[in-house]
Amino acid sequence: xxxxxxxxxxxxxxxxxxxxxxxxxxxxxxxxxxxxxxxxxxxxxxxxxxxxxxxxxxxxxxxxxx
Length: 66
Prior knowledge:
The protein has helices at 9-17, 22-48, 57-62. The mean pLDDT is 87. The termini are far apart. It has three helices and no strands. Helices cover 64% and strands 0% of the residues.
């Protein structure tokens, strides 16, 4: 998908001067932002509804034991 973003002229010029591909950098930054936000939302969901032990917990632990 093509989209338009606004980047500070000085920052864009510095990135170009350093040989940084602006599109790749934007994709990488967006990936990181999405990953960070998903982690935040997961953390919030867990805080609202934390996991609790259930009756099957002991059985699951026993699977790894001979």
